[in-house]
Protein 1
Amino acid sequence: MKIKTIVSCIVMCILILIGVQSNAAIEASVTGSCPTEAKIGDKITFNVNINVTSAGSGIDGFVAELEYPSDILTINVASSSSNDFFIMDGTLVGAFDDAIKSGTKTIALDVQIKEGVSAESATIKLSGIELTDLDKTTRDMSSISKTISLSSSGQAEVTLTEIVITPPSVTTIKAGINLDISGMKVTAKFSDGTTKDITSECTWFWDGKQVSSINGQKLTVGKHTVKAVYQGKEDSFEITVESSTTGGSSTGGSTTGGTDGTTANKVIDKAGLEIITIPGIMLAIAVAVISYKKYKMF
């Protein structure tokens, strides 16, 4: 009985060990996919696909050496991937949100070819891959690599992104004063970061109507919109015209303006006091002449 019992215990232990090992085994493969051709400046995605067929308690961790020419490429973990993945010192490492027992998990990497490089190709390589399950069992995967071939042109298409007007130094003027556009210019901005002065190449609009130039426009009181258009892009600013001051008074014996017979041509002394009106003087002379002739009062 004792021998049978001992044998039975040994068999049970072996079965338990086999079961544990089977449960802890990792059967998986790792592949990579991304476009095989791209222009300088383009952004592409390199997907690291982890295909799990059996992972026992579930795959939890991932570690791999990530090799690429940093002078040609920039690589970051895409926002669509788990926030628990990151690249540090040439190593891609992280943990999955949920342990994977079977199925496919993808880690997306954003890859961008830097501006100004002259290389014809660049290689992204993952090696030393290790997957770790919840029981801390690891499995080395075969290394994978992917080659990105740059286009023969070697440059991304440069496009116009916007135009920006620098308004004149003075945008508020009085009616009757000529518009001064000194300092005004239009700048075009392009996708490669370059700029260009296109002031002479723009199509101009004054209050919505196309004009050959904003100089010589009728400066009526109010706000006027000036718009520049260039290759489908536009920008605008406002010119404000204020009414000019009319009439007024001055000192030192000058006269004030007016249209009625009582206020026109009043003689003003330096203190601003009215002395007498010119029509009043003429009336006094007329009365004196009539009185002299009729009554010989003088």
Note: DSSP finds two helices and 21 strands in the chain.
Protein 2
Amino acid sequence: MSKLKHEAELLRQALAVGATYFEKRGAGRFEATDSASDKIKALYRLLVQDGLIQPLAKDQENEPNMKHKLALWIERQLPAGHPLKN
């Protein structure tokens, strides 16, 4: 797994967009008191369930890998020429 150039910024963007998707999907909503870790896990699992991202292998399912998957997911959603695209 190679780190993306703007992975931290992409993860922030993924959580912002993902929160909207999470709510519109009817899965609930993120509260200000929810930890970033809980948000990452919940969003990752919802995107896997909906078939929007490929699941990690069971032995690779940890927070750093979930963050990377979310960053890859949002990077593919960004338009060409976006400053966060590599």
Note: The radius of gyration is 12 Å.
Protein 3
Amino acid sequence: MNTTNLNSEFDKIRPYHNDEIPEAMQRIADAHEIGNIASFLFSEMNQTEFRDMIRNIETTEEFQKLLAAKAFHKIVKQTTRGVTIKGFENIDTLKNHIFVMNHRDIVLDSTLFQIALMEHGFKTTEICIGDNLMPSQFFTDIWRSNKMVKVIRGASIRETLQNSLIFSRYLRNTIVNKHESIWIAQRNGRTKDGLDITDPALIKMFAMSGTNDVLTSIAELNIIPVAISYQIEPCDWMKTRELFLSKDAPYQKSPNEDFQSILTGIMQKKGEVHIAIGTPINSELESCKNIPNQAIFKEIAKLIDNQIIQNYKLFDTNYIAYDLLNRTDKYTAHYTEETKEQFIINMNEKIAQIGLKFYPELCNLFCKIYANPVFSRDSRNQDI
């Protein structure tokens, strides 16, 4: 395989190599945006000390340990009641995997997973993010220094197809030849309504760079589904607002809305957080044999969905929202009257923050975000 040609093909989307890190660190240290990050996450250091620390970073590993991990440990301590994780025994350390995760928060989903991997002695993965999150050189340097791979979006149909093929080749090359694992969300953009559904187009993209045998091509990637669950949904009120405004017309993001969502997701209280690593889907691919090609991608997506839905941890907030939405007491054993009242108070405060005069409908949408994982679990269990 001609690695020179591969490197050239992937240069626009790949993470930085270690020999590119020092120059990127100089740009980050000199950027004015870094001052706000230092004040919020590294308040124990003065600005000069913080910038000097960044300038001395020479590798991706140093960047993740000295900057990314420390920053997110502080975020976890200040905004959560703790992060639990299970399923490390499902990771085969002799193989590389694509970890497909449900997507609830722009930054936290992948980052909390990386921290968990680091703390349990596993290598961090490369992380796939949309190019809309690289609006400037500063953010490009931050993300690409943190093993992030750029997903190019918003092009014409022809360009989208070409970008998808290059991206697919990159993923396969990373797994097979670079011997690195990858994290990717199960769909473009976060779920806004609490329904975790894998886009079959993602599976089709995975297979594009393989052989004509779809199952063999998918098996080579060693896909493992991962479920992340938040007791308090990141950006819940912002998602409620978007759901309401997108009922009758396509939703148009305001300038810097993605960045505002990142900040809100990071700073908002999240309660308990749980990550569950599933089992490789290779052992289940046999069930997809003899299925027409046009249907096989949907069936593989369902295999991922089954694990994510079953491994999703349902919190008291999910059960409260379900009972409020359905005016029932079906799940009262999972919460107290006190936690129910607190949920209603928090919901009312957040809906007031939206600033729209459609209270009943906004309450309904807000509750669905939390209740839909319960609906999904109930529906899935009935189908088994």
Note: The mean pLDDT is 92.
Protein 4
Amino acid sequence: MIDACARQIDYIRISITDRCNLRCVYCMPEHGVTSFEHREILTYEEIVRLARLLAQLGIRHIRVTGGEPMARLGCLGLVESLSRVPGIETLSMTTNALLLDGRVREAHDAGLSALNISLDTLDPEIYRKMTRGGDVFRALSVIDEALALGMRVKINAVPVGGMNEEGLVDLAALARDRDLCVRFIELMPVGCGASLEPVPTEAVRARLAEAFGELREDTQKRGFGPARYVRPEGFCGSIGFISPLSHEFCGQCNRVRLTADGFLKLCLNHRAGTDLRGMLRAGASDGELLSAMREAIYRKPARHGFESEIDDREVRRMNEIGG
């Protein structure tokens, strides 16, 4: 599927729930979260139907997200169904990993080949504070088990000023002896993250270069997103940077999102998209759904507009949008 900006759209993030077992500071407020009612979210059968149609439009890579996807009962059954969709080449999951503890082999056997694990620090106390209650050792256990099973593992860390800055070098060092990617993602001014202090990519790079020496470009293909990778001397894995603010990558964006409540969302910072749940439950045919999705994707916004005035700026929290 080619959009109006001549970008090939072949990657979708499918959120299956807005619920989460944690309350990370940049994602959700500590108290007072109102979740979607169960009838508001897509059924697994509806998700698989849409995935089959999206594959016909050229989607080749699916990432299952939330909230925390493992917080929804039957998540791994959905993974198994999605792994059988003709045309889908890779199936991965973004997760905080805690609810995968003890279930990594089950996830692997269901067809999951890769994990993106949210991990902002190795310090147990800072991790507990940033996640508001998480146990970092459970996340680390899942990482080691996934690697032992041959799964691809990426760690996603969001540097936040005044919180986890001092531990970024230790976090990056996980890639020294493990074949994984540690990726630093600039804090985006969406939802709860808008009130926190971002740490620019260049500041992170400077810290890492001081600790590890030259950050040589890693040209090995590490996935289907916008990260730029480096590999210091002696590292088994890689370090990545995703910099939507300081190094905008909109011109190469290849993704769309399906929210848990069935909205095909075209850009993180725009409300633009189309309500697929409404069409599904009104009895739309496959042809009608294909036409609606094709038209929506063609109109994908050219730029995210984080630092501009846009008419349809997104106001929902990240757990409602999908990670």
Note: The chain has eleven helices and twelve strands.
